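Tutorial sheet, problem 5. The two components below are modelled jointly, 753 residues in total.
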Amino acid sequence: MTRTMLTGNAAAAWGARLAEVDYVPSFPITPQTEILETLAGWSQLGEIPARVVMMDSEHSMLAAAATAAATGVRVFTATSSQGFLYGFEMLYAIAGLRLPLVLVNVSRALAHPITLEPDHNDVLSARDTGFLQFHAETSQEVLDSILMAYRLAEHEKILLPAIVNLDGFYLSFTREAVEVPEPEETKNFLPAFRPAYPLLSNREPVAMGAAVLDPSLYSYFKHQMHNAAENVLTIYPKIAGEFAETFGRRHGIIEEFMLDDADYVIVMTNSFASMGKAEIKRLRQKGKKIGLARLRMIRPFPHEELQRVLRGRKGVAVVDQNISVGKGGILFGEIASALYPLADRPPVLLSFIGGLGGRRFRPGEFDGMLASMENPTESAAETARPHLLFTGEECRQVGRFFAIARGSDNTAHGSTRSPRAA
Amino acid sequence: MSTAPTIDYEKIKGVHKIPLEELYTSGHRTCQGCESATTMRGFIKAAGSRTVVTGATGCMYVANTSYLTTPWIVPWMHTQLGAGGSSAVGMAAGLRALKRKGKIKDEKINVINFSGDLGAGDMGIGGISAALQSNYDLLIIMYDNESAANTDIQATGLSTYGAQTTFTPPGTKHPIMQRRWKKNVAGMLAVGHPTCRYVATACATYPPTDYLNKVRKALEIGGPTFIHTYDPCPKGWDYHPRYSNELGELGIKCGIYPLYEIVDGNIIYTYDARKTGKGRIPVKEFLTKQGRFDHLLPEHFTYIQKMVDEMWDEWQMPGVAPIKGILKARI
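Model answer (structure tokens):
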């Protein structure tokens, strides 16, 4: 095992390298490109056997990934944001064909307005596709999750593709210490891909992806996908245990941070959870009984695990780094549905939208969330709706932007009108 | 222009020499008189059993392979409407990786994708262009029945000028709605991909065995290759199913569908009306046998004839590329 400094993107490339993937169809998009660049470099030097091949779009990239996986080779690819959406049609196709490849998504908010910074509307748009989803906070977790994702995806009782998600910029370009496993020990954990069923490389005819025009048949296959995804929940602990035995690192379905005696819990995902954890520590120093639950597994959705972690708490605040416009936080609704059947469900469950387009938390926001949980004052109708995190100072800043855009800003930069026009 | 080098492949000399083995057989629900089914049956006969096929969404997907029924006696996989080219690339890459690792026998396995005119010529043309730049052995067959036939006949970029479809119904305000000239896909792909060694146009039934030999030639030459087939469609073109073969023949003889192959940059006209001594038959003879042109006015026939004449008489590479000459630059 080697300890080295790696960005989230480099860690993703290392994950693919150690998984000894055979084929990497590629297409560039910020902030993902570095992953595929790194693999291409290794491929050109002969350091990895994989072929890294430039495609003409993410749709083509994922279509080629699908057919290559259908021959029985191990396929890896990566994308972000608009590219993720451009290839979206293929996500349902790949999952429906039960092709166990791994796709890394480097989260970036969606246009319009266009931006480069992260939120999770891109990856969460795939929540219904049949892809398993693992969301990483650290570079180490990116690498580890890729190895575990292949084990799960290729498992005979699962056979579903997987997405490993990391945040653009905040993790993709942040260097962190990472323990890179040796290839030999990785092979013990993740042996070569042995397809469970006959594939297209066989001489015998196989028809994959036939139209199913009978409604019951269609339902049956969809139910099978759902059941297979749920199998992850029972298989994951075993595989995570093997992983811990091999590499000495254990990754739970949910990371429990300062939760032991916590009355109040903030739920977060991905790299912004690091900022959340710092706030939790600060509030703990002030004597507040608060902790943080970080969802690592989004699909399948860990209902039971969430119930275990959140039951009996006095209050839960879900910080969604995404927005379903006209509804609110995507994960809030999912978490609420998991908690509703509990008799001892938290009496206060609040929704906050933060981090859209990479927006950083402002001082006092976590104090505010805690205060809202401690002294809920809102009506039921108000509580069901999301709280959009935004400060007065930001409002004023936006006002200044608008003034500049209008050409009526006379304070900061003087008159923007030319003398002739005046 | 130089003449094409001879390429060694086993030519099917006459209809009696066509392989008897059927690899596309019962199990499909294509329409009576479906020429595209003949196109499918033909390419797999010519290619043989060591072939893997991907089929893009289209009438030849849904009418062929629904659960419990498939006519394919080779490994076959569906791909999305615009993914024909990339599905072939991924398939060839996967097979190559397996051979490299010694997981399957190192033998020639043909990879063939079929996509319709909407899938290949419109939506998926970018992916096919990329596939033709690749270094894999693959063949893409665009079966062109001049409409989105799977969804009940809508105009595509390859529908003949003036054709009636459900998206281009003739009306009192606009006598014709399909006012786009047919997209020149084979020519565009040949001209645009200098390293692609084989591009051809074909028709499954005319001249007999011509199509089958083009498939064999494409596979023999190797690398990424492309064949455009012209598939009369009784439903979309509105004629009695018994005339599918005749309509293909008329389309070629009137010159609206040029028949050629381009081997390493050399054009071979595999039907050339200029050399028959009889010349091209009037385009009207072909058009008036189809209900989809019933509404055309005399000026439309005149326009179509003029465009076809131009294609043969004024293009520097007749039927292939719409380049008429070089003008001196005025500087």
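Marking note: The interface with chain B takes residues 22-23, 25, 49, 51, 53, 55-57, 59-61, 63-73, 75, 89-90, 93, 97, 200-214, 217 of chain A (CB under 8 Å). Full credit if you identified this.
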